[in-house]
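From the methods appendix. Each design record in this collection lists the tokenized structure first, followed by the designed amino acid sequence. Records were kept in a plain field format so they could be parsed without special tools. The example shown here is representative of the layout used throughout.

RECORD:
FOLD TOKENS (407 positions):
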């Protein structure tokens, strides 16, 4: 997938030190928009507890075998990037990184607070060499506060951020969402947004800055609307206690005759009135917001939707000004004609692999659209290339490889 049109972030260089999902997703978003994203990965074999970690290896190849190349081709979080492997624990490795950072616009890292200082690649060290550097630390709980050293994952951040406690059905355990709220939205997406804002500010001030981005903060930010109701009215939310989390019949999911599900989002009275008319209960439109009628209406809709298949209901309702959509599986979502028409399934040719499908670029910019230009690199695929760009001679590169300074 390529285009002759310019890319919005062309000329911006990002050094990505992050490992797990949130950081790579954030830098993928920047890469999709044209940034030169360089994955700075560990040289040599993983050490310590990381030696046994298989999380990334299940989605990205870690060797140059056929299977490794295939895994890398489908590892969308690494697309549009280059890779260099550096041993940051060595003086020579840190000097390599300093040379890269001297010409970089952004550094993104996802270590525990304090790690970059110990490695000597923290903001204070790098900004002294490159005052225009935008440096983003992405962590679970941020660089300050009593929880800064706590470990965690998406489930923990959506828990402490208040989101998990309002998702699901009454009387059941909290419904655990896939790691989209904290890792992807509150983490990676928020990081990409903050980095772009800092780059815009740099145009005015001439200086970079430090971004302390906590995924737990990101979750709370995503709850801004609900937070406003809490602060103004003392609102507390449990599952199915609000119209937006399953509390009302007009904003809910219903099983159909074939065991599939549809979602109804007829919040506005005119949408709900049309739904009630089609379902044979026009009188329900008059009591849409009557709490005493809530369970009766829910019960009727549950039974009514079980009388037809999902396809039959969609054929009946989608052209009738009713807010309805199918609850899709992943395969259904990616083969839906609308997703295809919107370019949300990208295909790119990969040598030795063939055509590879990936999720497409979300934002549709008219003049500088994003692109999926190439697959994820294998670890260290561009080490020599990047060292040459930094001015290292072939003899030095060979010596550094032999010493495992780089790989």
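DESIGN:
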């Amino acid at each position: 997938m390529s285009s002759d049109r310019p890319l919005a972030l062309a000329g911006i260089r990002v050094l990505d030190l992050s490992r797990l999902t949130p950081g790579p997703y954030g830098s993928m978003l920047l890469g999709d928009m044209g940034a030169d994203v360089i994955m700075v990965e560990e040289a040599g074999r993983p050490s310590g507890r990381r030696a046994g970690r298989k999380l990334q290896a299940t989605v990205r190849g870690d060797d140059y075998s056929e299977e490794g190349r295939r895994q890398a081709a489908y590892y969308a979080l690494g697309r549009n990037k280059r890779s260099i492997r550096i041993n940051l624990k060595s003086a020579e490795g840190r000097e390599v990184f300093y040379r890269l950072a001297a010409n970089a616009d952004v550094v993104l890292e996802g270590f525990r607070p304090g790690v970059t200082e110990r490695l000597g690649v923290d903001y204070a060290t790098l900004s002294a060499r490159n005052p225009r550097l935008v440096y983003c630390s992405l962590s679970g709980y941020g660089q300050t506060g009593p929880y800064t050293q706590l470990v965690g994952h998406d489930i923990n951040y959506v828990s402490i951020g208040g989101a998990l406690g309002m998702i699901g059905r009454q009387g059941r355990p909290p419904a655990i969402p896939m790691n989209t709220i904290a890792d992807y939205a509150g983490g990676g997406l928020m990081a990409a947004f903050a980095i772009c804002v800092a780059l815009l500010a740099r145009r005015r001030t001439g200086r970079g800055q430090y971004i302390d981005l906590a995924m737990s903060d990101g979750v709370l930010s995503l709850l801004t609307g609900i937070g406003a109701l809490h602060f103004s009215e003392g609102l507390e939310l449990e599952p199915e206690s609000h119209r937006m989390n399953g509390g009302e019949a007009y904003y809910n999911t219903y099983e159909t005759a074939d065991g599939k599900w549809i979602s109804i989002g007829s919040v506005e009275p005119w949408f709900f009135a049309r739904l009630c008319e089609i379902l044979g209960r026009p009188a329900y439109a008059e009591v849409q917001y009557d709490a005493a009628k809530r369970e009766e209406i829910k019960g009727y809709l549950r039974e009514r939707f079980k009388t037809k298949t999902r396809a039959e209901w969609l054929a009946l309702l989608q052209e009738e000004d009713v807010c309805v959509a199918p609850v899709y599986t992943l395969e259904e979502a990616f083969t839906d004609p609308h997703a295809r028409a919107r370019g949300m399934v990208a295909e790119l040719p990969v040598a030795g692999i063939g055509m590879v499908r990936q999720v497409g670029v979300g934002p549709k910019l008219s003049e500088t659209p994003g692109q999926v230009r190439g697959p994820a690199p294998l670890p260290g695929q561009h080490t020599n290339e990047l060292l040459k760009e930094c001015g290292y001679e072939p003899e030095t590169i060979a010596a550094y490889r032999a010493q495992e300074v780089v790989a």
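APPENDIX NOTE: The chain has 16 helices and eleven strands.
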